[in-house]
Design brief:
Blueprint (H helix, E strand, L loop, with lengths): L4 H28 L33 E6 L5 H5 L1 H10 L5 E7 L3 H10 L6 E4 L12 E5 L5 E6 L4 H10 L1
Parallel strand pairs: 1-2, 2-3
Antiparallel strand pairs: 1-4, 4-5
Length: 170
């Protein structure tokens, strides 16, 4: 049985068209009907929720009307670059009823040594996983009231305007 060249060409063209349609269908489904990036199986960005209670053990929120939590990491270059701003915060709260707490995911001794290297003193140091504090990135500053409820928060290296906002709310 011999197949004519014309039948062979028609069959090959038909198979090429079928493969192209299947390939096009896969591409359309993958890119045109892609899942929304905020769908439930994507991780949502963790961030503090104003009005929610902080989950940080060993803190007596009622000690002062306000508490400013600095969520930091020793290897965070934005945290290190913000050290001069943190010094201004420390100076600005000296005569105010504001409690300052630096929270690190690493151990307290290592964290305290790191703060000393940056010239930051008069900060209470705590150790806690950052996600327990609703923190997805560092640096994050969280201002709470005397019940430990979040009043405001700031994420990342702050602009001079945001730095002034933080200090004005203390």
């Amino acid at each position: 049985m011999k197949i004519s060249p014309q039948k062979l060409e028609v069959t090959a063209n038909f198979l090429i068209i079928v493969v192209a349609v299947l390939f096009g269908t896969v591409l359309i489904q993958k890119y045109l009907f892609a899942k929304n990036p905020t769908s439930s199986n994507e991780k949502a960005r963790v961030q503090p929720v104003i009005g929610s209670k902080m989950n940080l053990s060993g803190v007596n929120w009622a000690n002062q009307p306000k508490t400013l939590i600095l969520a930091l990491q020793t290897g965070c270059h934005f945290c290190n670059e913000s050290a001069s701003f943190y010094k201004r915060i420390i100076a600005s709260v000296q005569n105010k009823n504001v409690q300052l707490i630096a929270v690190f995911p690493s151990g307290q001794e290592e964290s305290a040594a790191h703060l000393n290297e940056l010239g930051l003193t008069n900060l209470e140091v705590k150790q806690s996983p950052l996600n327990r504090l609703q923190v997805g990135g560092t640096p994050t500053l969280i201002l709470t009231n005397d019940k430990g409820e979040i009043m405001n928060y700031w994420v990342g290296k702050l602009t001079p305007g945001k730095e002034a906002e933080v200090i004005s709310q203390l």
